[in-house]
Write a structure and sequence with these properties.
globular; single chain; about 15% strand; Rossmann fold; 7 strands; seven-stranded parallel beta sheet; alpha/beta; binds nicotinamide-adenine-dinucleotide
């Protein structure tokens, strides 16, 4: 197990991609703090991690609220004392055409997806810089690269995460901290479960491998970046999209 002894934090780990990432890292030996917007749901993933024989601490946090992120990192410091791996996975959508998009819909998405990534990374980097070692992976999206009608707020947040990833990668490379993004295509989770059959059929036509991805497809990419295998990769956007965007 290549992550034995590593301490990891995965945001939005109650379901979907975050849960799959948490379980993969645990399977490879990492101890984890798993967060969600509900303690009960974070606890469910933590129990699954514990069943794999790893330590798992559940925590309720809204990553869009800086004071809650600070409280989360007080827990990281008191329980772990250090942090090897941060996966910024928490994310939301508030879709709508631009003309009708409300300020609240814009702000909610930017606050969780982009500001949440900033706030968690800022706290994590303090610990990682001290240790002169660390791995940050930000879960962006293919639509942050190519755009998507009806998702101006979401696409802006995911494109913003890519710029943020590259800036922080340059800033901390000398401290032996890698910072990368994974850009998933369309993945089978609750987030895409709301799509109608006709939208799914249209999307499938754009995916050369002719299937949606699984949360495990993303977890494997994250694992590569946080393990020793990915030690010379930084500032990269790893596309895991079935060929949807090349
Ligand atoms: P999901 O809706 O199934 O899960 C989202 C997770 O984020 C949940 O655990 C939820 O509790 C958490 N979360 C939501 N708001 C939060 C907040 N304010 N603070 C902390 N946690 C919060 O979504 P998913 O499909 O598993 O997506 C995970 C990530 O991958 C997101 O960032 C999403 O944008 C991105 N992504 C998903 C797809 C896809 O097709 N599913 C594609 C590209 C990118």
């Amino acid at each position: 197990m290549s992550l034995t002894g590593k301490k990891a934090l995965v945001t939005g780990a109650s379901r979907g991609i975050g849960r799959a990432v948490a379980l993969k890292l645990a399977l490879e030996g990492a101890d984890l703090i798993v967060t969600a917007t509900s303690l009960e749901r974070a606890q469910k993933t933590a129990e699954e991690v514990s069943r794999l024989g790893r330590r798992a601490i559940p925590f309720k946090v809204d990553v869009g609220v800086t004071s809650e992120v600070e409280a989360l990192f007080q827990l990281v410091t008191s329980e772990f004392g250090s942090l090897d791996i941060l996966v910024n996975n928490a994310g939301i959508t508030r879709d709508g055409l631009l003309m009708r998009m409300k300020d609240e819909e814009w702000d909610a998405v930017i606050d969780v997806n982009l500001k949440g990534t900033f706030a968690c990374t800022r706290e994590a980097i303090k610990l990682m810089a001290k240790a002169k070692s660390g791995r940050v992976v930000n879960i962006s999206s293919v639509v942050g690269e190519i755009g998507n009608a009806g998702q101006a707020n979401y696409c802006a947040s995911k494109a913003g995460m890519i710029g943020f990833t590259k800036a922080v990668a340059r800033e901390y490379a000398k401290r032996n901290i890698t910072v990368n993004a994974v850009a998933p295509g369309f993945i089978e989770t609750d987030m895409t479960g709301v799509l109608s059959d006709s939208v799914r059929d249209e999307l499938l036509k754009q995916i050369p491998v002719n299937r949606f991805g699984s949360p495990e497809d993303i977890a494997n990419a994250v694992y590569f970046l946080v393990s020793d295998l990915g030690s010379y990769v930084t500032g990269h956007v790893l596309a895991v999209n079935g060929g949807m965007h090349m």
